[in-house]
Design brief:
Distance between the termini: 64 Å
Strand content: 15-25%
Number of strands: 24
Shape: globular
Oligomer: single chain
Number of helices: 16
Helix content: 25-40%
Largest sheet: 8 strands, mixed
Strand order of the largest sheet: 6-9-10-24-23-22-19-12
Length: 593
Amino acid sequence: MHRYRSHTCGELRASDVGTDVRLSGWLHNRRDLGGILFIDLRDHHGITQLVARPGTPAYETLDKVSKESVVRVDGKVVSRGAANVNTDLPTGEIEVEVSDVEVLGAAAPLPFTINADDGVNEERRLEYRFLDLRRERMHRNIMLRTAVISAIRHKMTALGFNEMATPILTATSPEGARDFVVPSRLNPGKFYALPQAPQQFKQLLMISGFDRYFQIAPCFRDEDARADRSPGEFYQLDVEMSFVEQEDVFQPIEKLMTELFEEFGDGRHVTSPFPRIPFREAMLKYGTDKPDLRAQLELADITDVFEGSEFKAFAGKHVRALPVANTASQPRKFFDGLGDFAVEQGAKGLAWVRVGEDGALTGPIAKFLTEENVKVLTERLSLAPGHAVFFGAGDVEQVSKIMGAVRVEAAKRAGHFEDGVFRFCWIVDFPMYEKDEETGKIDFSHNPFSMPQGGLEALETQDPLDILGWQYDIVCNGVELSSGAIRNHEPEIMFKAFEIAGYSKETVEHEFSGMLRAFQYGAPPHGGIAPGVDRIVMLLADEPNIRETIAFPLNGNAQDLMMGAPTELDESRLRELNIALRKPVADKDKPAK
């Protein structure tokens, strides 16, 4: 028999009754029932129940050994009997009567419970991540991630893409976030940058003639954490294609996402095909460019209705309305609750009216609406008895953000939210440029390397704020999975695009010399996208925080509490790297410690 096991802890079935077996695993749980010990033994594959009877050496060992110790047991498979079958376990028809035990690795007292959720805080969990990963939910999430990545590789290869690797040590690049930098010992005073994305390299692969590339690419960005963004390191499915237009990129990615989410979505329906929603339409109807289409409500811009109005709350402001049907039976606390929610999002309050059986409007602001206001609102919003209308007023950006959140919350509370589905969409036609309201400066709004719609002619003849880019996002259930674009592969167009944003030709040549040099030797039209692997798994696992799908994530302050990173370097190491440290200047407003 093998030194450690003849079977795994998830393998034994009723057909194995009478078999002598050897198992190894972690002591997951222990119960003493009338002097008989029942032990749950756990390994990667599952759990098997052990039985140890009083007076046996096995009983004495298993009674004393601490939970989460690693043990090897020998014994015989016996039937539990019909009355004692555990239908929650694949091994639930049998148990193993233990005849011999060996402790392979004793466990110290545990900092938190493994076999139950005891509410331990995240910092503690990350400090002891190797224990946290033993929990069933975390183990399941990491194995889901493994299966998803394996499926992605298989499906991308089947779609004709070639997996390639790009460098980790590279040059700094203005991708929109801070770089992580690495000092060069052999080149004193110079630094590498860890890639924020393999953007330039994957484009260079297209220029080199490889046609269809993909990579499960590690990316590094020195940015703050969010629920859907891990600080430091993340992984994306990096994709690039030659001789393509926008729809050519959409087709394989849409097929991949549909298959992935159907395969791993635990029965949740994937709506297909994915609608294409222009950016400005998304901002108008949903208040965000990451719309959650499970919420079956839409916003409406009614600013013009109140132009010149004497109602001070709306006069001279951008006004957005959210009509909600079937609210006749909703109590007052429904309206007050949404008002409280809006305040949590940053609003001063939430105005509303409701439509009675006679078509008349009632509610806190009904008395401020003129007959003409009521007529226009009724027609434009298709109001009918039982409708309620919620209003937000202020500047465009603030109102969009607040009412976008209210739209989703109202849908959930009023029964207009579709559960158990994955609702994808493409957001398209992003503005190429935006204006800084404070400085008036024109800058790129999304991706500076995108091809402008209309090419060089558009850049030379149109108002920059009217120019759209061949840029797109893929969104699922309100989560942006990726941005992508058809690339600007012509030097003349690139120089002009950057000139509009205030960059000189010399600056562009300096910052992107490798790319520009490559473009001068025959670059094919190409485009790509890079869906986030971590976010895909987060959605499939139905986890609210992305760190729950990563084996060893950093915490919100970009620290590895388990390994103690980042660490300080001693003086000899700093000298070897030709680095002198400059400590942060102390804040004079802070009291001395």
